[in-house]
């Protein structure tokens, strides 16, 4: 049986939903209505568009709440939802909705933004394609990891659980299949949202080379 | 001179160019017919000139036609353009009817062979009436700021917009409640154009010398036409307040004032506000001053874009591409280009701009970090290669439903 890992990559088309919010109540209404692809877009866009910049802020909702509405506590509360431990987009949506509902029901600040600074809901259509990188052994896999487009890392790390309902990221699944459960566990345990994308690439390479024994998180 | 697509690989990386070839390959056999109202002058013609050539190099059969119209027609479309920008203009029923008549006359004479009709701006919008009989794909590309359009013009155009398969807008704020999918495609800058290409230190110095600017002291610059909406008077106030604390020069450079009565008035007011300060340089640049603008941006310590209203504000992308720290108003498309304190500074007032300008001039290392992040962000999101990719995805999306599309092919 072939052990080949074929690297895929992805690119996104951004679509406008024609919906906007100017305060926490309208944001809540929007969150209840938007498609899953919109939840995914607003929680991963920043990461993918700023892939060498410091990992904060993690998502559009938190950024808008904090920087435009000036609601730092609510912003922090949205930021602190640990996406790495969330199993589906719907679970993520439920968590955000609950935070917003709690804020609104507490009677805290719910006034709106100034005109022109509304939150615009968008989503994405994702195009997935094969790259010409493949690996049959751990050595080939590690070598490929240095060369694949950064979007390939995004596809194999972020998409599998949230959009394909897999139990973990594609790299860990393959590493288990070739008999490297320890490496698989270590990649699976990482919080990819705490890295820049280039930082994430470096971290994965270090794990694969077993070069990361002094790092804190593994 | 035509730029070759391969020349961009040294800037964006070969994998980006490979991806463009892969996506373009998926459009093999499709004819894409662009239609607008002019081949010369204006931003749309400039974009199409560059895009068609690059798409052809990628193997896409992209063609470009224009509609014909007389002076009356173009007066009406100018009024429509202004109304979409929110200007209070009256368009009579007769004028709407004439607009339809000219579009239908063009439809009778045009070549409608092709698979995708890519219609740019309102002038040829009515051509979509042909869709029913032809059965091909139609996309409407709006290059206009659609934030606050006049309702009657919007209602008229909406009758036609909703006949298309998709509409494309340049910024999230331009989205409307429509029954068809709306796609975001932001404008872009060309890193190989005169306005953005690398310049030698000698070339930069020579431009500074030409204008008498001292290269040994900090230079704060705003590049924009002389327009109230760009708030040049506000910029002078910012400079004067900062100047109390540290030495710097201010450059306000732009064109377009001579044929615009309001521009002449603004320029006069700017000159008065500058009074006789020898460290303020007000430069009214002639057309085709791209290299001079490039040099002024590259020579700057900090670039400002303190607009009160902005369409997209690509001067921000231009400055960030040159790895300059930018302080800009959070209006129009600027927040897409700058994440506050990550890739630049977003401000809302003169006070805020003064505060951050002092900070960036006092702390060049902090400013440098912002500028480096800004350049990286522009490289990944606002260069012409991203723009081409978005167009290719737009064309492909017309043939693929769903949120995740598997293209299943190797990059050659």
Class by SSE composition of chain B:
alpha/beta
Mean pLDDT of chain A: 90
Helix content of chain A: 40-55%
User: Count the helices of chain A. How many?
Assistant: 10
Query: How large is the radius of gyration of chain A?
Result: 19 Å
Residue runs with pLDDT of under 50 for 5 or more positions of chain B: none
The secondary-structure class of chain A comes to alpha+beta
CATH topology of the largest domain in chain B, anyone?
Rossmann fold
Biggest chain contact: A-B, 41 and 47 residues
Do you know the CATH architecture of the largest domain in chain B?
3-Layer(aba) Sandwich
Shape of chain A: elongated
- Termini distance of chain A? 31 Å
Distance between the termini of chain B: 28 Å
The number of distinct structural domains of chain A comes to 2
CATH superfamily of the largest domain in chain B: Glycogen Phosphorylase B
Strand proportion of chain A, as a percent range, falls in 15-25%
Shape of chain B: globular
User: Quick one: CATH class of the largest domain in chain B?
Assistant: Alpha Beta
Oligomeric assembly:
heterodimer
Helix residue percentage of chain B: 40-55%
Radius of gyration of chain B over alpha carbons? 23 Å
Describe this structure in words.
The complex is a heterodimer of chains A (218) and B (412). With 218 residues, chain A is α+β, with helices and mostly antiparallel strands. Chain A has 2 domains: 5-9 and 124-208, no CATH class; 19-122, no CATH class. Helices cover 51% and strands 16% of the residues of chain A. Chain A has 10 helices and 2 strands, in the order E-H-H-H-H-H-E-H-H-H-H-H. Chain A has a two-stranded antiparallel ribbon with strand order 1-2. In chain A, helix 3 runs antiparallel to helix 4 (72-79) and helix 8 (170-177) packs antiparallel against helix 9 (181-189). The radius of gyration of chain A is 19 Å and the shape is elongated. The model of chain A has no long low-confidence stretch (mean pLDDT 90). With 412 residues, chain B is of the alpha/beta class. Chain B folds into 2 domains: 5-188 and 383-397, Glycogen Phosphorylase B (Rossmann fold, 3-Layer(aba) Sandwich), CATH 3.40.50.2000; 201-381, Rossmann fold. Chain B has helices spanning 9-12, 14-25, 42-57, 71-84, 93-109, 131-134, 151-161, 201-211, 232-243, 261-274, 290-299, 314-321, 334-337, 350-362, 364-381, 384-397, and strands spanning 31-36, 61-66, 116-120, 137-141, 166-169, 182-184, 219-223, 249-254, 280-284, 302-305, 326-329, 345-347, 404-406. Chain B has a 6-stranded parallel β-sheet, covered by helices on one side. In chain B, strand 11, helix 13 (334-337) and strand 12 (345-347) form a beta-alpha-beta unit. In chain B, helix 2 (14-25) packs parallel to helix 16 (384-397), helix 9 runs parallel beside helix 10 (261-274) and helix 14 (350-362) packs across helix 15. The longest helix of chain B is centred in the last third of the chain and has 18 residues, at 364-381. Chain B is globular, with a radius of gyration of 23 Å. The mean pLDDT of chain B is 93. At the A-B interface, strand 1, helix 2 and strand 2 of A face helix 2, strand 6, helix 15, helix 16 and strand 13 of B. Strand 1 (5-21) of chain A pairs antiparallel with strand 6 (182-184) of chain B.
